[in-house]
């Protein structure tokens, strides 16, 4: 029987090795660890029938989406900074694309978008759907381009949910201090203060190297290193910067925001709030963009509506006497 359970990992393995039509057809696949014997047996019957059909030339060989994902995770994902996260996200989608050929990628993505929900039964956010679908299409395109697993781009017709990430919520200093007071994790408390007074992303805070002239960041989102000056009110935090997994601090922050009565606040809002504080203090948008590390000036334009006083001062100069 092609199906057997591997003792060391406790998972079912499918193995196929037959002489069909004068040719040897071989296949081996490690099945998901949550599968039961009945699920493994069903896969055995379906996959064996498919391989027999290929061997007897009843149908042309067609690679599955999961084959493309396996190649992508083995060859491409390990070279990406977010490779581990991509693997986790694609695993969350496995039920929607398992057993489907690459030619059915569009249908698999539509099926996932229609049926996917959170653990509590609530619909997934458009951003989560978009990210996961993009990971899956990237994997399939990689298999198409580098391994010729299909004749045409399998992701050409895949619909991607539209997402607007331009949040307009800004945290006041008083709200920031409330979050700190209600946070029981010391590293998270420091991270909250540093984010508010520096505008750095959480991932940047965890990698920042404090020196005399500021926080040094060698690896940023836009790929360019930068230095962020250290505000006097977080000088004590710079002596021992928070470290550890991103998720640990995120969860501590989420507990703190609930206790503080601010469940709508996101950690990333602290970065936006730093921009708001700078603009309200009269700092120009160009300088704000430099502080935040924006490579494209258009990224800073989302804060332009806050610069009301600066605009009013500019308008007031119309018709005035030249200096």
Can you put this structure into words, describing what you see?
With 323 residues, the chain is mainly α. The chain has 3 domains: 3-55; 65-147; 173-313, hpI Integrase, Chain A (Orthogonal Bundle), CATH 1.10.443.10. The chain contains 14 helices and 6 strands. It has helices at 37-55, 65-75, 83-92, 94-97, 105-115, 126-147, 173-181, 186-198, 202-207, 235-238, 246-259, 269-280, 285-292, 308-316; strands at 3-6, 11-20, 23-30, 209-211, 214-217, 226-228. It has a 3-stranded antiparallel β-sheet with strand order 1-2-3, with helices on one face. Strand 2 and strand 3 form a beta hairpin. Helix 5 runs antiparallel to helix 6, helix 8 (186-198) packs across helix 11 and helix 12 runs antiparallel to helix 13. It is elongated, with a radius of gyration of 26 Å. It starts with a strand and ends in a 7-residue tail after the last helix. The mean pLDDT is 85.
